[in-house]
Design a protein that fits this description.
- With 493 residues, the protein is an alpha/beta fold.
- It has two domains: 237 residues, Alpha-Beta Complex (Spore Coat Polysaccharide Biosynthesis Protein SpsA, Chain A), CATH 3.90.550.10; 212 residues, Rossmann fold.
- The protein contains 16 helices and 14 strands.
- The strands form two sheets. A seven-stranded mixed β-sheet has the order 3-2-1-4-6-5-7, with helices on both faces. It has a seven-stranded mixed β-sheet with strand order 10-9-8-11-12-14-13, sandwiched between helices.
- Helix 1 links the parallel strand 1 and strand 2.
- Helix 6 packs parallel to helix 9.
- The termini are far apart.
């Protein structure tokens, strides 16, 4: 097997000696190629390597013996060779290797394949950005050099499939990677510690799940061009199954960002993001208060104060209450009070207030009726109480109930922090019994603005525009079924 031409490393920064670099070589039936992969690790780079793990995934050939033989004859390579007791799969083998990197307390780990498809000559280039601290992961891309993938022997059908899938994944995830499907990767080990990679598949879709997790955790990914080489190695990937799986992962992630599903993929997402759209619950409550003459506002459950900041910017004086104090909240309102609303309103509030805002609050309380009655004493006689609550009669919870799958999600209508569930009618009855009359009720549709978060181009594409139109039409026709949240404007009786 001929090796790809080595790259020009003259422009690559010298690696820092204080970084512990490890290389994980995943190998399966690689007896004919493993020795050449190890031979091609640049001699000048070998002193920078702390450890190399060759993880033989229960091969049926002599891969493990080849590794042991190389270990005995190459004293300049800090080589560790293991053979898994059973086949773990491509993803499972990586999990074992990343656990090893964490246990060894490495700073950087590079994923290299034992079949020679990815050039070991690129190792200095793969590691340099991580040691410079400019990113958390480096991916070798075969698509950055125009025409390079095809010249390197990538079959046309694989090239076209790669481009189509990468475009789809970028659109759904709001990313801009040139390739999602390269197996040549380097990670900062602390980035791996921060993501739940152990939950991922043991198959080839593991790599896609790691990208999703890195993006969810706000990690920086850098790409470098690498040469393409296709030899006689046998592909163990079922293309149709693989394409289905990776599309399913990115779609599941985007749905979970919108509040549908268990939320295991959105582990780093705040449960209460600001809903910036004018048609969202936050947009509606701000418009209900309006830019009229300056008023005194009490914001219950103010979170990080972003909504309060919008009201304050409109000229209102805002006091906020929340059970936790966000580092930025004090700068976004006039006064912050830390309190648990399940214990009632704290003492010393400078009331009464012209407006009390309770955006996504009452569903988190054990006895919301008690807080509603207590607010009478803190609201001006002609004051306004504006409250938003999720609609448990929405089609999504109905489907969950009908299928016998009632469980809590990380966010959305079935948020695991919700203690009470409301329909429009049940919440109207609750506030009436607490001494309020309903002045106005508005319905919000799906939080489609979440789809655009993180995108390089925040303008909605045609699919999102069509989804928004369909959501509006459905909401107008059957509000009880398609309302994601209800927003009530209330006054004391």
């Amino acid at each position: 097997m001929s090796a790809p031409s080595p790259i020009d490393r003259s422009a690559i920064a010298e690696t820092r000696s204080d970084q512990r670099v490890g290389i994980l070589i995943v190998a399966f039936n690689a007896a004919s190629t493993l020795h050449e992969v190890l031979d091609r690790i640049p001699t000048s780079f070998r002193p920078h390597i702390d450890n190399i793990l060759v993880s033989d995934d229960a091969s049926s050939d002599a891969t493990y013996l080849i590794g042991l033989g190389y270990q005995a004859t190459a004293p300049d390579l800090p080589l560790t060779v293991v053979r898994q007791d059973q086949n773990l799969g491509y993803g499972g083998n990586q999990k074992a290797g990343y656990r090893w990197a964490i246990e060894q307390d490495l700073d950087v780990v590079v994923l290299l394949h034992g079949d020679g498809q990815y050039a070991p000559e690129q190792l200095p280039a793969m590691v340099a950005p991580l040691e410079d601290g400019t990113c958390d992961a480096v991916f070798g891309s075969r698509m950055l050099s125009q025409g390079g993938a095809r010249r390197g022997g990538m079959p046309r059908y694989k090239y076209i499939g790669n481009r189509i899938l990468t475009t789809f994944e970028n659109k759904v995830m709001g990313a801009s990677l040139s390739e999602w499907h390269s197996g040549y990767r380097a990670y900062r080990v602390d980035a791996l510690r921060a993501i739940p990679f152990e939950r991922n598949s043991d198959g080839f879709d593991f790599d896609t799940q790691v990208i999703v997790q890195l993006l969810e955790d706000g990690r920086c990914i850098e790409e470098i061009p690498i040469p393409t080489y296709y030899g006689d190695e046998i592909s163990h990937v079922n293309g149709i199954t693989y394409a289905f799986d990776i599309c399913r992962h990115v779609v599941r992630y985007r749905l979970q960002k919108m509040g549908f599903g268990r939320g295991d993929l959105v582990f780093a997402t705040q449960s209460y993001d600001e809903k910036s759209s004018a048609e969202s619950s936050h947009g509606l409550v701000v418009s209900m208060i309006g830019p009229r003459s300056a008023r005194r506002v009490l914001d219950l459950g103010c979170s990080d104060g972003r909504v309060s900041g919008r009201l304050r910017g409109a000229g209102h004086t805002v006091t906020g209450i929340d059970i936790e104090e966000d580092p930025l909240v004090a700068s976004r309102l006039d006064r912050f009070v830390r309190a648990d609303l399940d214990d009632g309103l704290p003492e010393g509030l400078d009331g009464p207030f012209d407006v009390v805002l309770a955006a996504d609050v009452f569903e988190h309380l054990r006895r919301p009726e008690d807080l509603l009655r207590e607010l009478h004493d803190h609201l001006e006689p002609n004051g306004t109480l504006i409250a938003s609550v999720p609609n448990v009669a929405h089609w999504y919870p109905r489907l969950r109930f009908a299928s016998g799958r009632f469980d809590y999600d990380r966010r959305g209508i079935l948020d695991r922090g919700h203690l009470r569930f409301f329909t429009r009618r049940s919440f109207a009855r609750l506030v009436a019994e607490a001494g309020y009359r309903v002045v106005r009720v508005e319905a919000t549709g799906l939080p489609l603005e979440v789809v655009e978060r993180g995108a390089d181009d925040p303008a909605p594409g045609p699919v999102r525009r069509v989804a928004r139109v369909l959501d509006r039409l459905s909401l107008a026709a059957l509000p009880n079924l398609f309302a994601y949240q209800w927003v009530f404007e209330l006054q004391r009786v």
